[in-house]
Design a protein that fits this description.
Elements: H1 5-12, H2 17-31, H3 39-55, H4 64-75
């Protein structure tokens, strides 16, 4: 007999954060196995755009610990 989604979710919550992230990665990859060949180039372009804006003082930076704290609070 197969487990229900609720049972699997309960079990997954007992995994470490790293293992939950890995499981999520594998589950998403199983739904969308295609590779986005343009994604890396797009991210590089975006990173360069942001870096140039930062250098021109058009945007500011935040410490990484603050970014992660803010992100985690939004996901709760």
């Amino acid at each position: 007999m197969s487990k229900s989604v609720a049972e699997l979710e309960r079990e997954a919550k007992h995994l470490t954060e790293k293992d939950r992230a890995l499981l999520a990665y594998h589950l998403i990859a199983s739904i969308d196995p295609g590779e986005d060949v343009d994604a890396e180039a797009s991210w590089l372009e975006e990173a360069e755009r942001r870096y140039q804006a930062y250098r021109q003082r058009k945007l500011t930076a935040k410490p990484t610990d603050q970014v992660f704290r803010e992100t985690k609070s939004k996901l709760k």
